[in-house]
């Protein structure tokens, strides 16, 4: 059976499990960004305001709750930072022992946050997929469950749960949403969003946004198969890295994502500064990808009703200070 079929049941179950653990984040109308595209009505879903600073908390809690219900007490995961922080919060709350695998060179601010929060961290490889493969192998060798950052239907269902709330808020003010812009890494977030909204409003356009320096999912979808695509250094560390063979997110992206926008580093930077200047909100590079995609391509959203997903806020002070000085 196609993994994208009958997805709604998982989402409803996820809703029951995690609603007491996560925040209902704001859906904020932006007159500033709407004005860039005449006639547009644009909202930002501020999942960057979520506990632990990203949307990842939802999928982590959903999967961790399932494992706890199965009497599992030890978990291994892999992360570029945000998923690890989310899993750590869920593990502490639910009483699990957690080990987090990260690639060498992972964002220093996120690594410090993990260690300061008491995480057990193992560094391995140079790409996120290297850390994932090592974590998965060690989980088998040690007889411990592996919690994937994206390649898991229960994780995706947890991410989709947040969009159900988003959808309810949108339909109050924006009953005819035309476009949803979503940052994409491994595909867990856009898989959940697209898998649900396309069943409710098929005419809505789902647009995947990736940094030009790490556009792995886009290249995989274009090729029709999962392949290796080198990732270069990007401010959007939360979306960087390769994709596991057989990832369940791949068919979601193939089936439901209508279009893709690649975003240059300068446009990610400008989006972060824009949010700080105009909305007094701190967002990280991955959120800057979807916001920057709109800002750079505003003309295509004229007279459209748009939602931009701001997925995270975990950016280091030194990085933020560098960007402020650069774009002053």
Give an account of the 3D structure.
Residues 21-312 form the Tryptophan synthase beta chain-like PALP domain. The protein is of the alpha/beta class and 328 residues long. The protein folds into two domains: 8-54 and 156-326, Rossmann fold (3-Layer(aba) Sandwich), CATH 3.40.50; 56-147, Rossmann fold. Helices cover 47% and strands 15% of the residues. Strands 1-2-10-7-8-9 form a six-stranded mixed beta sheet. Strands 5-4-3-6 form a four-stranded parallel beta sheet, with helices on both faces. Helix 1 packs across helix 7 (153-173), helix 3 packs across helix 7 and helix 7 (153-173) crosses helix 8. The longest helix has 21 residues, at 153-173. The chain is globular and about 55 Å long. It starts with 7 loop residues before the first helix and ends with a helix. The relative contact order is 0.17.
Using the coordinates above, name the CATH class of the largest domain: Alpha Beta
Number of domains: 2
**Computed Rg:** 18 Å
H/E order of the elements? HEHEHEHEHEHEHEHEHHEHHEH
Structural class: alpha/beta
Outline type: globular
Query: How many helical stretches?
Result: 13
Strand order of the largest sheet: 1-2-10-7-8-9
As residue ranges, the low-confidence spans are: none
Report the major sheet: 6 strands, mixed
Helical content class: 40-55%
CATH topology of the largest domain: Rossmann fold
The mean pLDDT is 89
Termini gap: 53 Å
In the CATH hierarchy, the architecture of the largest domain is 3-Layer(aba) Sandwich
Tell me the number of strands: 10
Relative strand content: 15-25%
């Amino acid at each position: 059976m196609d993994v994208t079929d009958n997805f709604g049941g998982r989402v409803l179950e996820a809703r029951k499990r995690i609603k007491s653990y996560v925040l209902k984040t704001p859906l904020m109308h932006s007159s500033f960004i709407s004005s860039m595209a005449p006639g547009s009505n644009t909202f930002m879903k501020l999942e960057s305001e979520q506990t632990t600073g990203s949307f990842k908390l939802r999928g982590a809690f959903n999967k961790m709750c399932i494992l706890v219900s199965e009497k599992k007490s030890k978990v291994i995961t892999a992360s570029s930072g945000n998923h690890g922080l989310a899993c750590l919060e869920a593990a502490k709350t639910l009483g699990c022992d957690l080990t987090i695998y990260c690639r060498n060179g992972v964002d220093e601010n996120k690594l410090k946050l993990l260690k300061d929060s008491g995480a057990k961290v193992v560094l391995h490889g140079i790409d996120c997929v290297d850390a994932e493969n090592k974590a998965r192998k060690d989980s088998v060798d040690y007889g411990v469950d592996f919690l994937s950052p994206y390649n898991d239907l229960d994780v995706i269902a947890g991410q989709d749960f947040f969009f159900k709330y988003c959808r309810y808020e949108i339909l109050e003010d924006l009953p005819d949403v035309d476009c949803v812009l979503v940052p994409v890494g491994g595909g867990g977030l856009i898989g959940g969003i697209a898998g649900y909204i396309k069943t409710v409003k098929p005419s809505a356009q789902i647009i995947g946004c990736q940094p030009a320096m790490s556009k792995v999912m886009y290249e995989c979808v274009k090729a029709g198969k999962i392949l290796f695509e080198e990732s270069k250094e990007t401010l959007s560390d939360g979306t960087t890295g390769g994709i596991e063979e057989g990832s369940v997110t791949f068919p979601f992206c193939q089936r439901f994502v209508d279009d893709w926008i690649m975003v240059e580093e300068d446009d990610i930077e400008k989006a972060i500064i824009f949010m700080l200047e105009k909305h007094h909100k701190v967002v990280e590079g991955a959120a800057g990808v979807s916001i920057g995609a709109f800002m750079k391509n505003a003309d295509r959203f004229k007279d459209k009703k748009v939602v931009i997903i701001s997925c995270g806020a975990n950016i280091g002070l030194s990085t933020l200070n560098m960007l402020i000085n650069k774009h002053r």
